Amino acid sequence: MVKVILRLIIPLLTLVFGQFDTLAQTRVQKSQDLAVIQLENVQIKAHSIGSFFSTLALSSDIPIGLEIAFSKDTRTPYAVDFKKGTLSELLTQFVTEHTEYAWEIRDGAVNVFPKKGYRVALFEDLLKTRIGRFSVKENTSCAALVESLITTSEITKVLNVRGAKYRAPDLTGFYIPQVGRKFVLEVSNSTMKSILNRVVRLSPTAKFWVIATNSDGSLNVSLAANHEDAKKEIQLWR
After folding, report:
1. How many Å is the Cα radius of gyration of the chain?
2. Scanning 29, 57, 87, 190, which has the fewest C-beta atoms within 10 Å of its C-beta?
3. How far is the C-alpha of 130 from the C-alpha of 36, rounded, in Å?
4. Residue 206 · residue 221 · CB < 8 Å
5. How far apart are CA 124 and CA 153, in angstroms?
6. C-alpha to C-alpha distance for 39 and 207, rounded to whole angstroms
7. Adjacent-strand bridge partners of 112
8. What is the pLDDT of residues 76-100, one digit of tens each?
9. Nearest by Cα to 113 from 175, 38, 196
């Protein structure tokens, strides 16, 4: 049984998506199928969809990727009070309340994405872009991994065609999120979405990715991670 009580989590996504408060007590049972993972007493109150899903991913050790919907106020409050059931039931409850979104499990990760008519064309183009070769070495930070991915020739080409610019989130605090000291990755002919999914599925720390727009209109792609040395049961206070 894994229990997690959180009141503050990941300064990086707090900056990107806003402040949030959460109290979660989660039990995760191992399963080859993410959809039937058992969750218990999940209570999350967040001021953005990004912080909502980052909290769920990091507190429950569930790999999740999020594509933000078009013209959606990312600072809209999001909350869930889920007593007991499967991950599938929790996600279905969420998309029933927020009808612009759908969910699926792809590449071993949960993907939450906008339905047709709500998708940002740039995000859709980037996520389906195939990258010939991509690798991650040991001791790579989340920010460095994303930067390396964004600067591949394939992704750079899409950004140039779209006239889009990428701006990395500002990092604050003494801890820089890492994907794992010993984490390495070598992939070829894979889409950007598949690579991000694989990272959050295999990394011992990074369990959440998001693609969104910054306040200045620039592209934001971020990973969120727990501290590698953190205990499975932690309590953090504001």
Report:
1. 17
2. 29
3. 30
4. no
5. 17
6. 17
7. 66, 103
8. 789 999 999 999 999 999 999 999 9
9. 196
Q: Which residues touch 41 (CB under 8 Å, ≥6 apart)?
A: 24, 25, 26, 27, 82, 83, 84
Nearest alpha-carbon partner for 43 in 26, 20, 65: 26
- Any residues with CB less than 8 A from the CB of 82 and at least 6 apart, and which? 39, 41, 42, 43, 89, 90, 93
Name the token pair of 83: 């007593």
Residue 91: name the closest of 100, 78, 108, 103 by CA.
103
- How far is Cα 77 from Cα 49, in angstroms, rounded to an integer? 8
- Yes or no: say if 35 and 41 are a contact pair by the CB < 8 Å rule: no
Note the pTM of the prediction, 2 decimals.
Answer: 0.83
Q: Are strands 5-6 and 109-114 parallel, antiparallel or unpaired?
A: unpaired
User: 25, 71 in Cβ contact below 8 A?
Assistant: no
Sign of the torsion formed by the C-alpha atoms of 191, 226, 82 and 233: positive
For 143-202, write each residue's pLDDT tens digit: 999 999 999 999 999 999 999 999 987 766 667 899 999 999 999 999 999 999 999 999
The full 3-state SS of 123-145, as one line of letters, equals HHHHHHCEEEEEEECCCCEHHHH
Q: Give the domain ranges of the chain.
A: 5-236
Please state, in angstroms and rounded to a whole number, the distance separating the CA atoms of residues 111 and 95. 12
DSSP letter, residue 168: P
User: Whole-angstrom Cα distance, residue 26 to residue 97?
Assistant: 21
